[in-house]
Amino acid sequence: MLTLVAAAVAGVLVGLLSGLLGIGGGTIMVPLFRLAFGLPAIQATATSLLAIIPTSLSGCVGHFCNRTCVIGVGLAAGLAGACTSPAGVHLASISPSWAIMLTAAVIIGYSAFTMLKKGLAMPKETGRSKASAATAKAGAKATVPAERPARVRATRRQTVVGVAAGAVAGLASGYVGVGGGFLMVPLFIQFGGISMRQASGTSLIAVTLLAIPGAIAQIMLGNVHILAGLVLSLGSIPGALVGANLVRYVPERTLRLLFGGFLLVVAVILVGNEIMVPEV
Question: Rg (Cα) of the chain, in Å, rounded?
Fold first, then answer.
C-alpha cells in the first residue's frame, strides 16, 4: 500500500514535467517502475506505455486551451508513430533487458546533449518569453501572463517533419516504453522551426496517439502491470494540467535547459540501475 501511495505522489511530478516539457513521462516512469516496483525491464516499459496515455492526454487539454501547440503537426506525428510503435514492441519482446535499457539511455542522452547545447547557445535576452516581455510593459500587471497566442497553423514542411519525427519516435516508444517526446521536441525545434513552448504541446498530441497501439500490444502480450500504471496515472493527470499551464510563465531558454538537464539525469539513472540490478 505504501508503494502504491508513493507511486501516486510520484505521478504528480511525472505529470508536471510531462505538461511542462512535452514528454509522455516514460523517461521517469520506466526507472520508477524498475526501482520502486521491482518490475522486469519489459514489464516496466510496457506499464509505462499504459500510464503515458492518460498523462499525455491531460497535458494536451491544457496546451490546447492555452493554444501552445501546432495541432496539424501533432496529429501527423502521432499517426505516423502509431504505425511504427507496434514494431518497437515486437523488438522489445525479443531483446534482452540490458539492450532495452541501454538503448533508452543512449537515445535520451543524445537528446539531452542536443537540447543543452542549443539552450546554452541562446542569449538570455532571446530566451525570454513573449509573455514575459508583454507583461513587463504592463507595470503593475507584470505578474499576469500575456493573452493566449493565436492558433498556429502547420506548414507543409512542418507536417513532413512531424511525420518523420513521429515515425522514429513511435519505434523508440514501443521499444523502450517512453512516449517519444524526448525525440520529437528537439526535432520539431530544429527542423520544423517550432518554438520550445509550442513544441511541448505539439509533442503531447503525438505522444497520446502513438502510445495507444503500443500499449494495446503490450497488454495483449501480458506485459503490463495494470494496477501500477493506473495508480501512477492518478497523480500524473492533474500534474500534467498544471504543467501545461506553467509553460506560459517559463522563458524559452529556461525550458530548453530544464528539458536537457532532466533528460541527462534520467539517462544516468537508467545506466546506473542496470549496473546495480543486472537482468538477463
Answer: 18
For the chain, give every domain's residue range: 2-276
Residue 127 reports pLDDT greater than 50? no
> Does pLDDT of 161 surpass 50?
yes
How does residue 273 score in pLDDT terms, banded at 50, 70 and 90?
Answer: low
Within 10 Å of residue 272's Cβ, how many Cβ atoms? 12
Cβ proximity of 59 and 240 under 8 Å: yes
Q: Which residues are CB-neighbours of 278 under 8 A, at least 6 positions away?
A: 98
Please give the Cα distance from 199 to 127 (Å, whole number).
15
Q: Which residue has the cell 501480458?
A: 222
Which residues make Cβ contacts (< 8 Å) with residue 223, sequence separation at least 6? 42, 43, 45, 46, 47, 93
The separation between the first and the last C-alpha atoms of the chain, rounded to the nearest angstrom, is 29
pLDDT at 133: 42
The answer to whether the beta carbons of residues 247 and 259 sit under 8 Å apart is: no
| pTM for the structure as a whole | 0.77
| 8 A C-beta contact, residue 210 and residue 177 | no
Q: Is 155 exposed, middle or buried (0-12, 13-18, 19+ CB in 10 A)?
A: middle
What does the DSSP assignment read for the chain?
-HHHHHHHHHHHHHHHHHHHHT--SHHHHHHHHHHTS---HHHHHHHHHHHHHHHHHHHHHHHHHHT-S-HHHHHHHHHHHHHHHHHHHHHHHTS-HHHHHHHHHHHHHHHHHHHHHHHHHS-HHHHS-HHHHHHHTTGGGTTSPPPPPPPPPPPHHHHHHHHHHHHHHHHHHHHHSS-SHHHHHHHHHHHH---HHHHHHHHHHHHHHHHHHHHHHHHHTT---HHHHHHHHHHHHHHHHHHHHHGGGS-HHHHHHHHHHHHHHHHHHHHHHHHHS---
